What does this fold into?
Amino acid sequence: MGLQDIQDRIAKACADAGRAADAVQLIAVSKVQPNERIRDVLEQGHRCFGENRVQEAQGKWPEFRETFEGIDLHLIGPLQSNKARAAFGLFQFIHSLDRPKLATALARIAQEEGHCPELFVQVNTGEEDQKAGVMPAQADDFIAECRGMDLPVRGLMCIPPVDEEPALHFALLAKIAERNGLGGLSMGMSSDFERAIALGATHIRVGSAIFGERVPT
Ligand SMILES: *Cc1c(COP(=O)(O)O)cnc(C)c1O
It folds into this structure.
């Protein structure tokens, strides 16, 4: 596996689904990966990466940005309100907007800073206790609330339960997005991104299939 292989598989999945090859953005999830592996993917020309912790991202990306231009960073993990300002300085996209308190914090900082990362509302499609995300039944209200604060909500994100067929969750997410007029769908990881593309994913989050297994730190 590796970057080229994943890009080929994305192109094929798009063709199979009758979608344009550039309809899907590949977010290379670099959390916990050694810097040499990240540098290697940067040197192959890839510029779109995902991290799940603000602090970890702060530790490596400012330096990569001195060497490589045009890097887009996506925050795909939970965001605490007190880390929101730091996230603004680092990320162009946040995929984990999931509660009013965070929405309020982001709206306040956006006003102060004069810009805001593009946002995805995370939906807990499996209604799992331990998982972040707004419940499907609350999603419409929460999206409206965020829009009422002038937040740039671009789409929805989900992480399906490990032991369930992901396609059911991707289809549910697509349905909620459609009825709310949202174009962005952040769904699909190493093991299921082709199914996500078939169901309309616009952003897939692929880590281990590009970089190899995550090395425990
Ligand atoms: C780690 C992570 C991924 C990537 O997982 P892989 O299985 O390595 O592709 C995708 N999305 C989120 C939210 C993650 O935390």
